[in-house]
UniProtKB/TrEMBL annotation:
One of its GO terms (molecular function) is acetate-CoA ligase activity. This is Acetyl-coenzyme A synthetase. It comes from the Bacteria. Keywords: Acetylation, ATP-binding, Ligase, Magnesium, Metal-binding, Nucleotide-binding. It catalyses: acetate + ATP + CoA = acetyl-CoA + AMP + diphosphate. Residues 532-610 form the AMP-binding enzyme C-terminal domain. Residues 93-477 form the AMP-dependent synthetase/ligase domain. Its EC number is 6.2.1.1. The gene is acs. CoA binds at T314, N338, S524. The lineage of its organism: Bacteria, Pseudomonadati, Verrucomicrobiota, Opitutia, Puniceicoccales.
Length: 647
């Protein structure tokens, strides 16, 4: 592969930030990193001492059945204990754990003591209806405190949770429940989204038609049955408030083996049918604990806000498990970023004085599209660190984030990782790493990246690979060990983990993610990642977002089709097309001129907000569309199909 990027801006950590940071200099990072690579077992064992164990491990890493790695075999612990109980002993007992705001503006604050009580009651309620260690529990809830409580209650009793994002359809829920054989579903009568109530319970009822494994459904009253009165099935359904009302306020934690399954989570489905990723207890616990501490430089008085939904891995690792193990105070918000208006997020930052803000490039591009005026109305001076995750961030979006949100003061951590990796893998260390717009920079401790060809030769630009196992690594794909081996381990004969992304290393040794290997285009012999091409379009002042795909071309091998979204209120016409072509000519070269540029009001995205290039490719090639179950808004694709055929 080759790189066509000309991005070379660099931003040193602000001295005020670095001076108080856990890791405050490049030397401090290097020293710890080298230690973590020279003797990973010693490094992880030392870090593990910061957590609570019922019994210590016999060994740190067991590779005897690779790629089915075991971390901390012999140890016994409980993640809920480490997220909640251990904070009750000291000053954190009455600290706010969750500051929650509903979309209509209602609020709740739960201290760690409150969380402990509510989780114990919930856990006892689940036990009462027969949920046991090892049972799979599907959670289909809006972003309300009960979502976090449900996850922790499962972890407390050793039930395996599988959270399903509350925007998914009945069919998607059914597929997931059938795949893992869940016996219990936790849902709500509804949740607020864009001033409307999503009828979650009705969707669950529909999903459960013909499903035999589920014998209990717990229903949280959130939308008060109005305007969707919800059906109550005697014997199967239980109102949450009644179930927990008389439960004892204590519930012992199940002593879990290090490798007992903690949760199952289906990937976003950007590249195809979602995979049921398995994470287990001890390694995931330690990895989310340590990445949260160092990458967010999380301090006792921070107000942390990760805007993801708990339904994605980002929410598992950086709303529930990582921040709570670190006794963080965090903001949780139920609704849409543009309800009642496009300033909602900034209003929340101002209201609760958020200090750390972690979001996705898709959100950042939406904020840009909506315009700066929404930020200007609010005081964002409390912010001290920003983060992004989910997709490559275009340098122009990064610069906007840096200036408009971070006031050129806050470091930005561009965190590259996956559902499969459990936590951050490549990311700046905020007080130590000079950042570059659009670059995930350096590996976290214990992570040894390599950039390889298909044959396993090291190169500057090619396929990203990870050398050794780390504690947060997935332990399998539920029910399909062969697919697990094929997908992640066969590419280089088991020597490396294969994440499926392209990457390049620059002269400073920094790693840039170039996009997914499935999306790489080959134009006249140049193999180019989509991220860099798209970033050129986004540099134009009128462009908000862009997606580039390759289609077969007689002479070039592949020709480029560019889909471009313009900023609200700006013109999109042949003049803009001409300017965009000139930008490509100038920054890459004439060979990369797109065959066609299509303007659209939106792009097809997964429900987690990622661009689905494979569907754009299908549209451009006039093919039948592939798996569309994870698509957020099907009308976007229909519109593009129509436009494509007309143009
Ligand atoms: P599926 O595996 O089902 O196709 P998915 O890959 O979108 O879905 P996730 O685990 O949510 O599921 O996403 C991980 C992927 O997101 C990474 O492999 C990478 O392509 C992309 N990604 C995440 N963070 C970053 C980042 N900071 N920079 C670039 N890409 C990122
Ligand atoms: Mg993936």
């Amino acid at each position: 592969m080759e790189s066509v990027s000309h991005e070379n801006r660099k931003f040193e950590p602000h001295p005020d930030f670095a001076k108080d940071a856990y890791i405050g200099s490049p030397e401090a990072y290097r020293e710890l990193y080298e230690k973590s690579i020279a003797d990973p077992e010693a490094f992880w064992a030392e870090a593990a001492e910061e957590l609570d164990w019922f019994k210590k491990w016999d060994k740190v890493l067991d590779e005897s059945e690779a790629p089915f790695f075991k971390w901390f075999p012999g140890a016994k612990t409980n993640l809920c204990y480490n997220c909640v109980d251990r904070h009750l002993k000291g000053p954190n007992r009455n600290k706010a754990a969750l500051i929650w705001e509903g979309e209509p503006g209602d609020t709740r604050v739960l201290t760690y003591q409150d969380v402990h009580r509510e989780v114990c009651k919930f856990a006892n309620g689940l036990k009462q209806i027969g949920v046991k260690k090892g049972d799979r529990v599907a959670i289909y809830l809006p972003m309300i405190p009960e979502l976090t409580l449900a996850v922790l209650a499962c972890a407390r009793i050793g039930a395996v949770h599988t959270v399903i994002f509350a925007g998914f359809s009945a069919e998607s829920i059914r597929d997931r429940i059938n795949d893992c054989g869940a016996t219990c579903v936790i849902t709500a009568d509804g949740g607020w989204r864009r001033e409307r109530v999503l009828s979650l319970k009705n969707t669950v009822d529909e999903a459960l038609e013909g499903v035999d494994s589920v014998s209990n459904v717990v229903v949280v009253k959130r939308a008060h049955g109005d305007p969707f009165p919800c059906h109550y099935k005697e014997g199967r359904d239980h109102w949450y408030h009644r179930l927990v009302q008389d439960q004892p306020i204590d519930c012992p934690c199940e002593e879990m083996d290090a490798e007992d399954m903690l949760f199952l989570l289906y990937t976003s489905g950007t590249t195809g049918k979602p995979k049921g990723i398995i994470h287990t207890t001890a390694g995931y616990m330690l990895y989310t604990y340590l990445t949260t501490k160092y990458i967010f430089d999380l301090k006792p008085d921070d107000v942390f806000w990760c805007t993801a939904d708990v339904g994605w891995i980002t929410g598992h690792s950086y709303i529930v498990y990582g921040p709570m193990q670190n006794a963080a105070t965090q903001i949780m918000y139920e609704g849409a970023p543009n309800t009642p208006d496009e300033g909602r997020f900034w209003e929340i930052v101002e209201k609760y004085r958020a200090t750390i803000f972690y979001t996705a490039p898709t959100a950042i591009r939406a904020f840009m599209k909506w315009g700066d005026k929404w930020l200007e109305k609010h005081d964002l001076s409390s912010l001290r660190l920003l983060g992004t995750v989910g997709e490559p961030i275009n340098p122009e979006a990064w610069i906007w984030y840096h200036k408009q949100v971070g006031a050129e003061r806050c470091p930005i951590v561009d965190t590259w990782w996956q559902t499969e990796t459990g936590g951050h893998m490549l990311t700046p260390i905020p007080g130590a790493t000079a950042t570059k717009p659009g670059c995930a920079t350096v590996p976290f401790f214990g992570i040894e990246p390599a950039i390889l060809t298909d044959e396993g030769e090291e190169v500057d630009a090619g396929i990203l690979a990870i050398k050794k196992p780390w504690p947060g690594i997935l332990r399998g794909i539920y029910g399909d060990p062969e697919r697990f081996k094929d997908t992640y381990w066969c590419k280089w004969d088991g020597k490396y983990y294969f994440p499926g992304d392209g990457a390049r290393r620059d002269k400073d040794g920094y790693i840039w993610i170039l996009g997914r290997v499935d999306d790489v285009v080959n134009v006249s012999g140049h193999r180019i990642g989509t991220a860099e091409l798209e970033s050129v379009f986004v540099e134009h002042k009128d462009v908000a977002e862009s997606a580039v795909v390759g289609v077969p071309h007689e002479i070039k091998g592949q020709g480029l089709i560019a889909f471009v979204t313009v900023i609200q209120g700006r013109e999109h016409d042949d003049h803009l097309r001409k300017e965009l072509v000139e930008m490509i000519d100038k920054s890459i070269g004439k060979f990369a001129r797109p065959e066609r540029i299509l303007f659209s009001s939106d792009l097809p995205k997964t429900r987690s907000g990622k661009i689905m290039r494979r569907l754009l490719r299908d549209i451009a090639e006039g093919k039948e569309l592939g798996n569309t179950t994870t698509l957020a808004d099907p009308s976007v694709v229909e519109e593009l199909q129509r436009q494509y055929e007309e143009a």
